[in-house]
Amino acid sequence: MVKQNSEPLEWRINMPDGTSKVLVPDCMSHSRLLLQGFVMAFLNKFWGFLQRAWKIAVNEPNKLMHCLKVGLALSLVSLFYYMRPLYEGVGGNAMWAVMTVVVVSEYTVGATLSKSVNRAIGTFLAGALGVGVHWVATQSGEKLEPVILQAAVFLLAAAATFSRFIPSIKARFDYGAMIFILTFSLVSVSGYRVEKLFKMAHDRLSTIAIGTSICILISMLVCPVWAGTELHNLIKNNMEKLSDSLDGCVAEYFENDVKADNTKNEASNKILQAYKCTLNSKATEESLANFARWEPAHGGFNFGHPWQEYLKVGASVRSCAYCIEALNGSSIYSDAKVPDFLKKHFSKFCIRLSTSCSAVLKELSIAISTMTKSSKIDIMVEEMRNAVEELENALKSLSKQQIASTETKTGDSVNDIGEGNGSPAVVTLAEIVPLVTLTSLLIEIAARTEKTAEAVTTGRESRIQS
Amino acid sequence: MVKQNSEPLEWRINMPDGTSKVLVPDCMSHSRLLLQGFVMAFLNKFWGFLQRAWKIAVNEPNKLMHCLKVGLALSLVSLFYYMRPLYEGVGGNAMWAVMTVVVVSEYTVGATLSKSVNRAIGTFLAGALGVGVHWVATQSGEKLEPVILQAAVFLLAAAATFSRFIPSIKARFDYGAMIFILTFSLVSVSGYRVEKLFKMAHDRLSTIAIGTSICILISMLVCPVWAGTELHNLIKNNMEKLSDSLDGCVAEYFENDVKADNTKNEASNKILQAYKCTLNSKATEESLANFARWEPAHGGFNFGHPWQEYLKVGASVRSCAYCIEALNGSSIYSDAKVPDFLKKHFSKFCIRLSTSCSAVLKELSIAISTMTKSSKIDIMVEEMRNAVEELENALKSLSKQQIASTETKTGDSVNDIGEGNGSPAVVTLAEIVPLVTLTSLLIEIAARTEKTAEAVTTGRESRIQS
């Protein structure tokens, strides 16, 4: 049958509010509609942006607080301009104080301290060296002076830039090296013109001192966000999420058939995916640990708290997460069907192991959070080992059944399990591959969890020693 | 028997050069030796530092080149100071040009462009707004003026700081937001004093223009390092490393008994660990993709090259790497011993699968590198699928043997494999668990490799469309 085109060709435009309009071939209304569409699209996008911003503000009030702190610091430093006596004091160079505040204000106390120290040291070193080079240049006569200055700028800038590529320097003194280049260039270049070099150096240092001390005081006194505490909480939360994901992952595998698909709601999916934030947290952990080293004693943390140990714990938590990632979304969920009676039989061992694993992780996260040795952890690790052994035994007892090629299975003979060759339930190996994989990944996760427990213990001991 | 202490108590100190000295109880020499030890330790450390630096310089000449480029840019910009006519031209504000060069000089062209544009836009917006606010403040009388200025600084600084927490802004305009705060504070604060506000704004913009254009020209003309090319190579290299690691990992498992342990030299260990750099490359990939978007056409890349697709390819390469991580160093290497005849039997299937997987990865890395559709890739993926099927069949044929609890095995009956129940080789399930795990992780890796192949194809198509 041939379709009848009863309606003439027409253009429809779908508006963002859900309605749709027929476009009449009229240039004016066409362009007006286009414009309207653009405006609506822009407003929609802007609205989405505002919503995202609002979400951040509500979920992380500390970030909102940080913004107010930056505003406060800037207001304070700009007072130097408005109050005449203060202004005269720093000789019109108050600009440097404003600049320092803007650049040095960071979210965590450690980052602020690190940047402040870097800025001060970088400026001081470069200033001293700049004055020295300038003196040498002046002594060498008017012709040689710019040549020496240029060569010094070129060489020192190149060397300082290169130092920023060396990992140990980059981690701690990246900003300092930049400030060194900046100050040295400014001093040696402007020294050619400005006569009062020492005055300038002194002004810069004192304005930087004013700026950094305002920033440091505000960041430490007004709702301080400590990099150390952030690192501590990050590791703790990652452990908790991992523990939840592990539970959810194993439960999902065994409950797959029991529950209908539509009951897998968003919340449980979120728990299943929670471990993912652990996978890529290495860079964050390292930078937090770096900043934490600059911080004074705060909360339960002394100065010299072993922050590096957190990185080791974090790394071993991550190695657990890799295993869960291999497990999750892997073919074990979809492929070959494991016979129900086997699944039921193994579910209690697997769930027992995953439960004791996740209990160990939870206990470790509590131990980290309270910074005490958990009295239960040894018992729990022992329990986890037992669960591993039981699961291995269950696998061994499965061997007692005949795994045969004949397809005559008695699918519901749960009671036969482990009763030897008397009345064997017959399964093919291919059917149990997913189960075996799940089992050995679980055992691997248990091994890595044990390593995590060791790392936590080592960390606690090195805290006590320090 | 009681030990005889024939020698008196003495202190020995081991020197860094391998000798050891007996310390005589003399205060002078004691402290001298201590000092000597400190100096030696310091020199040793410094020497190690120099060696590391030298290694970077030799292995990555581009980084050395970058340092010279920064030196060159600074030398060029300082010419403004030395040449009187140019100096007069920018009205003594040449300092801003020096500052711009130092801050904007980044390793890749994209990063330099991104920072330059951010700096220019941030300065312009903040300058315009600052002048506007300043005008409003001036109109409101002398008493209200500082109040309005202070309030504006507080509010705008807080808002701009907050915007830096929003991921989409942070990725692209983080530096711009900081410059906005800086400039706005400077303009509205110093506006209270400096009369020639417009002149100052004009000077700042022109010095920034001078600084950024010097940096951009040098970074683009002298040995340019393109973020796009870096991203391209990073993804390509990660694929190659993954492919090598996969080969090495499987080979190690099956050759474990053949080779003695001491033949596992450093080189092969390095190959085995090569995949690890893929695990944590997400942040680098994202920042490179962000910078690459700013870059003009270069090499084989047009402006608007689909850099985001590289991130998808990178993510799927990483998901392969997670599986290898679960495989590598897992208990399959150490635990229960798989019977030799089974290992031999399976080795050909497993090695065939891992070889075809790694061949696909290598071919994909070549396809990425040449930006063409590989003519062989479809056949190779098909081959990989066949290898998966064969491995699965091998598992199924294993089921034909009787897996029994009796420990009377005929360990060397390799020829019996697959010949059905005629003369069965008997193994327990527990013995083959590691093998089954390896098998199903390999199958999972094959599945993820296929997804990587799809991502590469999609990426190529979206490049052609763009």
From TrEMBL, chains A, B:
Pfam families: ALMT (PF11744)
Topology relative to the membrane: Multi-pass membrane protein
Coiled coil listed as a keyword: yes
Domain of life of the organism encoding this protein: Eukaryota
Localization per Swiss-Prot or TrEMBL: Membrane
Single GO biological process annotation from the record: malate transport
InterPro entries linked to this entry: ALMT
Keywords: Coiled coil, Ion channel, Ion transport, Membrane, Transmembrane, Transmembrane helix, Transport
PANTHER family registered for this protein in UniProt: ALUMINUM-ACTIVATED MALATE TRANSPORTER 10
Protein name listed in UniProt: Aluminum-activated malate transporter 10
